[in-house]
Amino acid sequence: MSSPAAEPFLSLQTQAARLLATTTKTPPQMQSISSRNLLKQLPWVTLTSGTYRVNRRLQIKVGRGRVSFIQEGTDVRIIPQTLTELSALRGYTDTSVLERLAGLFTVRQVTPGEILAEEGSPIREAFLVAHGRIERLATGEYGTVDHHGVITDGDQVGDEALGSDNPTWSATLRCSTAGTIMVLNWDTLLEFLDREEGLRTHFAEFARRRALPQNRKGEAEIALSAGHEGEAQIPGSFVDYELSPREYELSVTQTILRIHTRVADLYNDPMNQVEQQLRLTIEEIRETQEHELVHNPDFGLLHNTSYDQRISTRTGPPTPDDMDDLLSMRRSTDAFFAHPKAIASFLRECNRRGLAVDGTSLEDGSKALAWRGIPIFPLGKIGITEHNTTSIIAMRRGDDRQGVVGLRPAELPDQVQPGLNVRFMGITDQAILRYLVTSYYSVAPLVPDAVGLLEHVAIGKEESA
Asked: Which segments constitute the Cyclic nucleotide-binding domain (predicted)?
């Protein structure tokens, strides 16, 4: 049986009507645009030149870094050149001696709960942590056991015995996880120093410098007199400066935007093609700029935060205790920056303890999560490691508070945004317009305690049912 013939349409169909109509279009969207909270919250200092010098008082205390290791299966070796990250070896340049010194360390595998050293016992070994977590526990005033921090990958302990007579451990060292440590016996080191006069002289100079008068921040002491009466002799003094202060040069992100003249001439309704191309390019440059402020090895916050301002989480996830420890490391903190997953992990720990996390009002009227009244800003640029860990940044901001400042140039030629300009480079033989898009920037902590890190922050750890 044949199907009946289709009935004729009674009105114009939409397929035909669309031939005479236009569509409503959105501007081109971009998924990688983020909130860029770091760029928004940093106070920016404009530079009349390309360099920013941070002058400081003379520092006597030698800073410390982290030793690096090579691991091939169960074989773990110290990278000799990174031994100069130890305070006592800072500035030592004899690579051959460093290689022999690295060979004196032996590998030891540790287990959870293992005690490496007892409080009050003589220091006979120094430890470098290749991998693992070691707790420092000390007896309090009333016999309680107090937690004095965590030692993790790349950290060292025991080197404080250099230059001391009959040194003893100030805390018990207990392994909270399985791990790998490198051990140096002090008798072996002393025998090595007997053969290496240059290294022995370097250690003696380190001990002499460490004994110089200094304040609690390690700066050269200013002689003062307080509480005296009568005609006491008042000491004279002066404030010495660092002879080689840190200088920050403005970094740059650039690209050449190419647009065909035919596109720019003919396809500009309802949106200007050149403007949209520039808008999206500038958005990508700003995203890269924020990433560099976090990760650049020369000035990025994760790489340039002082190691004295870094602590590790106690158990993995960021707990309220960890955040309080991070707060206690500087005289004031006015912002946290954390990966959104780290914030979620912190909120889970607060829920587990029955704690409510309050919000706070920002200067622009918006709201933000806060801990102890300090806003916590999401910053996905911090990233997550392959081990599912991240870091939380705490900072004090502003040059008037000896905090962290962003750096950018003063007014630029052809500037379209602060620190960013777009310069027309001409038309090629292929009829292509070329624009040079450039952004200049950097970031500088004025003193070491302006920024701190909570490291080894585990994310995604759910409470078991």
From this structure: 89-193
